[in-house]
Design goal:
single chain; alpha+beta; Glutaredoxin; Glutathione S-transferase Yfyf (Class Pi), Chain A, domain 2; 2 domains; 9 helices; 4 strands; 54% helix; binds glutathione
Amino acid sequence: MKLYQNEISSATSRVRIALVLKGLTAEALPVTILGEEAESRQAEYRKINPQGLVPALLTDSGVLITQSLAIIEYLDEIKPEPPLLPQTAEGRALARSIALAIAAEIHALLPPRIGLHLKTTFNADADAVAAWSRHWVDEGMAAVETMIAGRRQGAFAVGDRPSIADIFLFPQAISARRMGFDLARWPNIAGIVAKLEGVRAFQENAPAPRR
Ligand SMILES: N[C@@H](CCC(=O)N[C@@H](CS)C(=O)NCC(=O)O)C(=O)O
């Protein structure tokens, strides 16, 4: 397998964590994602992934899978152990709700292309883009904290082993901390992140800081 990826990418971090938890490897194919000239924005990469995003996984049979949740569920299907989805239907639904609350409602408002569009079309300066990002992280993470707090029954976000909920939560929480948020304002998230920081797959695959 080959993984189109970028080291600062939170969505890539999710897939890299899942690969390690599964004991799978994928050859890394780096794609730059910052600035107007980023490789992710060029026609050549759009021929590979029409959305111009990382991560994208090329399977051994040459099929390209995009979107981190789809990639991780694919990995879970080709190598079922250890499972990345909880055992009950309700647990699986909750884990997917948390993963999507992060991917679709928080992270989707933050990537480089969003900041670039705010700058070029709406004349937002760096401070305005930072305020935009802080707003969506603050509101979104507070909602995720409440979702977890209401139904938490184990050491991790859903149950007693890391699931897709933790895989999506961890990189977002690390990014929030880098933005200056004290995770203690979200006590369940802070506790889960502290636990995940002791798990090698998470420890070694957090998104790298933007330089
Ligand atoms: N929903 C997608 C998000 C992918 C995404 O936004 N990736 C970012 C990096 S974290 C990217 O490629 N950004 C390029 C850009 O914004 O121009 C997923 O979960 O895979």
